Amino acid sequence: MRLNKGYMGTVELSPEKPVIAGEFSTWTITFTAGEYGIDDGGSLVIAWKSVSDWDTPQFDEKVEPGFTTVTTTGDCLVKARYNKFVRSFGNSILIDVYRGFIKKGDKITVTLGDTSQGSLGMRAQSFCEREHEFRVFLDSCGTNRYEEMPQRLKVQIVPSYHHEIQAIVPATVKIGEPFEVAVRALDEFGNPTDKYIGDVELAVRGVKAHGLPASVHFDGSSSNALKIPGCIIDEAGFWNLQIKDCEHGYLAYSNASKAEAEPEKFLYWGDMHGQTRQTVGTGMLEDYYSFSRDKACIQFTGWQGNDFEVSDETWADIRNFTEKFNEEGKFLVYLGYEWSGTTPQGGDHNVYFLHDNADFYPSSNWTATSVDNKNNANPITELYSKLENRNDVLLIPHIGGRYANLDYFNYTYSSVIEIHSHHGTFEWFAFDAMKRHIPVGFIAASDDHTCRVGLSYPLSGHGKSASGAFDVASGFTGVYAENLTKEAVWKALKARHCYASTFDRVYINTALGNLQMGDAGEADDEELLHLEAAGTYPIEKYEVYDWDKKIFEKDCLQRDKKKIRIRWSGVVYRGRGKSQKWDGVIYIVNGKLINAEKYAFDRIDQGIVIKSDKYLKFTSSTSGDYDGFILEIEGDDNTEIRFSSVAGSASVKYADVLKQGFTKAMGGLNLKLEIEPAFEQIIKENYCEYNKLKADIVLPQSTEVTEGEYKHAYWVKVLQTNGNAAWSSPIFVK
């Protein structure tokens, strides 16, 4: 078949200028037929990546966003519809030709975001991409067999204007030694932006320090984080960096850091889980690694493409970029891939190699036909066989589209499981492991598909159901290691000297006598669990667990008797389509709704739709995380709060909420509604007075007989007032 411009034709995209993330605009794609033309019954497909939140094109509502028109100069009719296409270009417009044909020289013109009849246009995707591709496929003979056109249409997606500023500091610093802090500007979608010009005031809060300039200037020349050297902490304790831009009204705090005279171990932050355009994700490998180092400011990372899409050529590229970007003592990159067998075969496991590895062992080569079949390993027990007697391999079970099957858990290769990512928060996975008495630690990551590993924000969900979007922001793995080398961080992961944190990089550490977080053995003091924690926001409470049983919890803030918090959380079930929509109404009977503030919403396209004195209409979806509102209500003993959503409904007296709170299971795997007195609202300038805690928790002396090697597994969840949390890896006691 002659698959060239002369026979297939040509395609053009206009305009070719860069596109601002999230902007409304109009783009025109023009197909000019070649010798083949398109027969009556043939079709044309315009496809783009599955991972994208461009407005879904629609063809009927002329004044609504995403309105798309298709015309032709040919002696025929054309009809278009949005259609699913082949992975990883799963979004597409399918254009059918009928009642005639397209001959050489005829044109089909597709106007994405046609504004001629009142539409705002089409909204571009919310994340940046150096080369966003539209690929065009032709079925000239009406056979449902598509061949790709010779040209690939490309546009550059660039960041929007500044929306907030953020600061990042090392999690552990040595008193008297200088270090770097980082400040960055982000647009409303979480993209680091170069469209910020301003002066940022810097101040250390919590301890005495010197060497830091009073302010720094952003000149709009780079979207990288601005690295500021020379800060020195003078005394021990927790601290945060406060940053302020008075002109633009920005005030923010960094993650918490702990200063010590002689740290035995340092806490390092990493996100080891993401994909690029080599598989189902977007973005180039060069951008992927440089983003995590220069914009996300994490200290270790990895690449985890779905194995059935990884060709031998891709694996060679991953090996080369791992070597290119890894810099001991500064920025670590671990070689790996995602073993993506179906759940009954073992389910998703991230595979990491300590050193370079010439081979990888996929569950299949379903789409990557160039892979040597001798390396295929399926089910996962076959992978274990291929890795036998190796101590330089780490397997991390996780939740993505597929979920890892703990029936196959292998103690030799797996020391931790992933309980939070871009896909959602999966506490149920931690509880599943604890119920089975599996001595495993907890980590978090992003599973980023947007080339923003270490700084992944939710997609907007335009045109997508809750289950089709990445609903939550990325997470991080905190690792306690002796130094920033691959060997030291690897050793810490294998020893479970690590923990999971959601987006704010919450500091947490635990100890039981001589045992540290993740340790297993006999404790010389089994009565007091020592806890240290510090966050970006005030810490509202912490919970202590022994295996899967909650044994202690404590509020760290006072309750506000004038306000209530209503929140919901959870997932529908373990597999695909796990997210739950909660769109609904909160109605106040015999009372007045004075005010409502959003709580823990991740997605900017969700929240309040309508607010009146009587009710609040909202949109929401959860993927294990929290969404909700802080409500101020004027009422009495006759006042009633009614909650009605697509996930379920509930009704409770306002007076009962103030006395004892209200909780209702809403089905699914762990869907839950909670209504309780709100925690006191802390003024932002005072966050550093309430964002840390130290506690010695008296553990109950259990006489219960426990199966397995370890009698106890003590772990802690710490929760901030903004809904972000951290989970310590358990301490296992014989």
Question: What does this protein structure show overall?
Answer:
- The protein contains seven helices and 54 strands.
- By secondary structure, the protein is mainly β.
- The radius of gyration is 27 Å and the shape is globular.
- 8% of the residues lie in helices and 43% in strands.
- The longest helix has 14 residues, at 312-325.
- The strands form eleven sheets. Strands 23, 24, 25, 26, 27, 31, 32, 35, 37, 38, 52, 53 and 54 form a 13-stranded mixed sheet that branches.
Gist of the model:
This protein is mostly beta strands and 734 residues long. It contains seven helices and 54 strands.
SSE layout:
Layout: H1 5-8, E1 9-14, E2 19-20, E3 24-25, E4 27-33, E5 43-48, E6 68-72, E7 75-84, E8 91-101, E9 107-112, E10 122-123, E11 129-139, E12 147-158, E13 162-168, E14 172-174, E15 179-187, E16 197-205, E17 209-210, E18 215-219, E19 226-233, E20 237-245, E21 250-253, E22 257-260, E23 266-271, H2 285-294, E24 300-302, H3 312-325, E25 332-339, E26 349-353, H4 380-386, E27 393-397, E28 416-421, E29 424-425, H5 427-435, E30 441-444, E31 476-481, H6 486-494, E32 498-501, E33 507-512, E34 515-516, E35 520-521, E36 528-534, E37 539-546, E38 549-555, E39 559-569, E40 580-581, E41 584-589, E42 592-599, E43 607-611, E44 615-619, E45 621-622, E46 626-634, E47 640-645, E48 648-653, H7 654-660, E49 662-665, E50 672-679, E51 692-698, E52 712-720, E53 725-728, E54 731-733
Parallel strand pairs: 2-12, 14-22, 23-24, 24-25, 28-30, 35-54
Antiparallel strand pairs: 1-4, 3-10, 4-9, 5-8, 5-11, 6-9, 7-8, 11-12, 13-15, 15-19, 16-18, 16-20, 17-19, 20-21, 20-22, 23-31, 25-26, 26-27, 28-29, 31-32, 32-53, 33-34, 33-36, 36-51, 37-38, 37-52, 39-46, 39-50, 40-45, 41-44, 41-47, 42-46, 43-44, 47-48, 49-50, 52-53, 52-54
Helix pairs in contact: 2-3
